[in-house]
Amino acid sequence: MPDQPRVHVFPHPEAVGHAAAEQFLRLVLATDPAVPFSVVLSGGSTPRRLFATLTDPPYVDHVPWERVHLFWGDERPVPPDHPDSNYGTAASTLLDAVPVPSANVHRIPGELEPERAAETYEDELRSFFDLDDGTAPRFDLAFMGLGTDGHTASLFPGSEALAENRRLVVAPWVEKLDSYRISLTCKAFNNSAFIIFLVTGGNKAETLRQVLEGPAGRYPAQLIRPSEGELHWYIDSAAGRLLEGAGE
Ligand code: 6PG
């Protein structure tokens, strides 16, 4: 039975970034040093503060980067050096500044035709996690974002991808973006051991209120419920200003 989401409110986005980095460090140090630690990075702009924090002490020195394996929750259909690339954002703000081995960086090949990118990434996940057909990876930690329409990763409202219960990675057409995206599915996310949504900014407040306190099943972000794991929301006070008990 999925745990109840736990909401942590911080005074500003920098504090969200620090708390997320601290939790990442705590989790990786709590796991067996002989095995890889798998982290899914989210896209968009919110994780930039987390990435920047991880490039500073104590994280740059204390995270055992040699056993951290990085994955992405979604990607845009662009090459890795394109300004819209989620991998590109992480490369320039994190990967270039921490000693994570390049073999540990498992980017979604956005330069490929979208369906081929999805199939290729699914193969990479199955290979890395040694998955039988139909089983899902167990990421140690997954960071997620939230769009103002309630999407997360590239799982958008009304998308057929929301009902995908066999594949781990899909390449949905996103009407509102007039573009394909490549995204992990709820099946791929919901076997994670620990999921943290990072949400900052007053523009997310109404969506966050509806996602956390409104009727279930209305937003893609509400479909992210780890079956045997923890679900946490790290938000700043601006994003949380409409939540019950806010400002008490
Ligand atoms: C993407 C993300 C997406 C993002 C949200 C929030 O590729 O854009 O994966 O799901 O997390 O849209 O984006 P911001 O952090 O920029 O608000």
Characterization of the model:
There is one protein chain. The protein has one domain (6-236): Rossmann fold. Helix content is 27%, strand content 17%. The protein has seven helices and eleven strands. The protein has helices at 13-29, 47-54, 59-62, 86-93, 114-129, 186-189, 205-213, and strands spanning 6-10, 37-41, 68-72, 74-75, 141-144, 169-170, 173-174, 179-180, 182-184, 194-199, 230-236. The protein has a six-stranded parallel β-sheet with strand order 1-11-10-5-2-3, with helices on one face. The protein has a three-stranded antiparallel β-sheet with strand order 4-9-6. It has a two-stranded antiparallel sheet with strand order 7-8. Helix 1 crosses helix 2. 41% of the residues are buried. The structure holds 6-phosphogluconic acid. 6-phosphogluconic acid (6PG) is lined by residues 42-46, 73-74, 86, 145-147, 151-154. InterPro entries: 6-phosphogluconolactonase_DevB, 6PGL, Glc/Gal-6P_isomerase, NagB/RpiA_transferase-like. It catalyses: 6-phospho-D-glucono-1,5-lactone + H2O = 6-phospho-D-gluconate + H(+). It comes from Candidatus Kutchimonas denitrificans.
Determine the oligomeric state from the structure.
single chain
Number of structural domains: 1
> Biggest sheet, open or closed, and with what strands and sense?
6 strands, parallel
Low-confidence stretches: none
Radius of gyration: 17 Å
Neighbour order of strands in the largest sheet? 1-11-10-5-2-3
User: Hey, roughly how much beta strand do the residues contain?
Assistant: 15-25%
Instruction: Give the beta-strand count.
Output: 11
Mean pLDDT: 97
Q: Given the structure, what is the number of helices?
A: 7
Which bin fits the share of residues in helices? 25-40%
Ends apart, CA distance between termini: 31 Å
Question: CATH class, anyone?
Answer: Alpha Beta
Q: What small molecules accompany the polymer chains?
A: 6-phosphogluconic acid
**CATH-assigned fold name:** Rossmann fold
Q: What is the ordering of alpha helices and beta strands?
A: EHEHHEEHHEEEEEHEHE
CATH architecture classification:
3-Layer(aba) Sandwich
